[in-house]
Amino acid sequence: MSDPKNQRLGSVDALRGLSVAAMLLVNNPGDWGHVYAPLQHAAWHGCTPTDLIFPFFLFIVGVSIALSMGGRIEAGAPKAPMARTVLERALRILLLGLVLHALAWWLMDKPHFRLMGVLQRIGICFALTGLVALYLRASLQWALLSLLLVGYGGLLLAGGDLSQAGNLAARWDSVLLGPLAYQWDAARGLAHEPEGLLSTLGAWASCLLGLRAGEWLRRGHTGRLCLLGLAALALGYAAQGLLPWNKQLWTSSFVLWTGGWAALALLAAHQLVDRHGWPALGRSFGVNAIAAYAGAWVMAVVLEGMGWAKPIYTLGLGWLARAVDPFAASLAFALCFVLVWALVVRELDRRRIYIKV
């Protein structure tokens, strides 16, 4: 049985890995025109199973920070070297995200370069949460989390309507990112960026929630972890009447709703894997998470940019689309894509090769 106070937890590696595998699954269908509804993001307001994936990953980032740094902080280790390590790693993650976007811009002949993205958001949240773990005691961490939830939610509500074109976050991104956003309407001067700048406040709150959950896990306070999950779910469900769940805006209700599920998933994984010895499914993805995500991105971009993706799909699974169902064929392609990378990370794990960014 693993002791959460001093050992790496298989449950955390497993949840991180399953989140990455799920990212690969939903990001790489064989045919974007035929994707089952649960494997799509909500068009705007709402929360599908797919919308849980990125919040789960950021929650686990916070948990991992607590597990990796909490003991050293308690032991009185110098904070400056740890802060430097946190910032250096965050910068590497952010720069990797920029490189991947540059590759997509070049190979896929995109009309403009996109500045923000998944890895960029992870890097920012990792840096901010790591510094919070180092320099703010628990009570101030809770206060900051509450301030983010209430303050960011208040900004969105005070900033006008919550439509895709009229929300405050979109207006900020239009000014600060402009044509470097995911979508840019030059005629109206309007940007749309799912990983935008202002909405990163909500994403940071998800990471902070994971930090506090990870600290309780590290100390063995699993009862508090259960209460956190249930309370967050209840608050997130109640708050949607005022501020709807919305992943692209990363609303405060979305933070609480997804964070509640993540806390309960962490508790369940800890009990099953760490306490009762169940297999840590997804661990191989989890110990090479960023490398797997980046490698899969490169593979997908090269296949698409070289014009190979559609022929591979047609030759390999076209018969399934015709004989059974195009949705099933599209899902089968995504599953094959994940399987390829499952074999890659399993071999890396077998050889004890862990690529750290």
From TrEMBL:
Superkingdom per UniProt: Bacteria
Heparan-alpha-glucosaminide N-acetyltransferase catalytic domain segment(s): 8-152
InterPro entries from the UniProt entry: HGSNAT_cat (IPR012429)
Claim: Transferase is one of the keywords in the record: yes
Keyword set includes Transferase: yes
UniProt KW keywords: Acyltransferase, Membrane, Transferase, Transmembrane, Transmembrane helix
Residues passing through the membrane, by range: 52-69, 90-108, 114-135, 142-160, 196-213, 225-243, 249-273, 285-307, 327-345
Molecular function via GO: acyltransferase activity
Protein name: Putative acyltransferase
Organism lineage: Bacteria, Pseudomonadati, Pseudomonadota, Betaproteobacteria, Burkholderiales
